[in-house]
Design goal:
This protein has a single domain, classed as Aldolase class I (TIM Barrel). It is about 45% helix and about 15% strand. The protein has twelve helices and eight strands. The chain has an eight-stranded parallel beta barrel with strand order 1-2-3-4-5-6-7-8, surrounded by five helices. α5 packs across α7 and α7 packs across α9. The longest helix has 19 residues. The mean pLDDT is about 95. The protein binds 1,3-dihydroxyacetonephosphate. 1,3-dihydroxyacetonephosphate binds next to β8. The site of 1,3-dihydroxyacetonephosphate has 14 residues, from β8.
């Protein structure tokens, strides 16, 4: 059984001081466990170094960015390149989050370019996919997710795809308090794994992490993580509270030891 992966996406929240306190509180709490779960914190860009400083101290604790540029270094005012992230000691980077698709017009083609920049730098892309409520109501969720995944990821060769994390985040569950049921999550995760299997084979499909995001919290994490194809979680709001985030990590540990 592979270990779980729990990623905290802080989005555009926290002052520097709050970020410092949150990182320290999470790290202190996690130090008390002998964790097999991989934990990634994704603060806003200016606070990344806080996390990379802590990440140096122990295994299973990593820093991730929430976005990167589709370009390499150069005259792109306001952008952050994958190479810069590497130079800070960052190891993961979220791309294609639905908030970036919605508010910043990111398309699958742009996201594919971002994936390329990250892979070139040996960073691990956490590539988001997920349908809107309207798409689910029209039973289009599988078509939408298949298109998102194939257009952002399936240009990669087999040896690269295993170093990519796929995050299924139904848009209707993000920040709404409405979580996908464990059965809905499992149905989509197993569909995504079957897509990877068809394209890259069984072993690669097994090794690829597929994590769930969308109102995941300390109460529902146990059951979500117990699903066969749910390899962990991408946590928004609940990752801003150290106690709750640590409980979610504990749920991931429990689900591995119980399986
Ligand atoms: P919430 O956990 O706040 O619903 O956010 C999920 C998310 O978008 C993580 O990337």
């Amino acid at each position: 059984m592979k270990s779980k992966l729990v990623i905290g996406n802080w989005k555009m929240n926290q002052s520097f001081e709050q970020a410092e306190d949150l990182t320290t509180a999470i790290e202190d709490a996690l130090e008390d466990f002998n964790l097999s779960t991989e934990v990634v914190l994704c603060p806003p860009f200016p606070y990344l170094e806080l996390v990379t400083d802590h990440a140096d101290d122990g295994a299973h604790f990593y820093a991730g960015a929430q976005n990167c540029s589709q370009f390499t270094n150069g005259a792109f005012t306001g952008e952050i390149s994958a190479e810069m992230l590497v130079s800070l000691g960052v190891e993961f980077c979220i791309v294609g989050h639905s908030e970036r698709r919605k508010y910043f017009g990111e398309t699958n083609a742009v996201i594919a370019e971002k994936v390329n920049r990250l892979v070139e730098q040996q960073l691990i892309p956490v590539v988001c996919c997920g349908e809107t409520l309207e798409q689910r109501q029209n039973n289009q969720q599988f078509t939408v997710v298949e298109e998102q995944i194939s257009e952002t990821l399936f240009h990669l060769p087999k040896e690269k795809i295993e170093h990519v994390v796929i995050a299924y985040e139904p848009v209707w569950a993000i920040g709404t308090g409405e979580t996908a049921t464990p059965a809905q999550a499992e149905e989509m995760h197993s569909f995504i794994r079957s897509l990877v299997e068809k394209k890259y084979g069984t072993e690669t499909a097994y090794n690829t992490y597929i994590i769930y995001g969308g109102s995941c919290n300390a109460k529902n994490a146990v059951e979500l993580f117990a699903q066969e194809n749910v390899d962990g979680g991408l946590i928004g709001g609940a990752s801003l509270r150290a106690d709750e985030f640590v409980q979610i990590v504990e749920s991931a540990e429990t689900s591995v030891s119980e399986n």
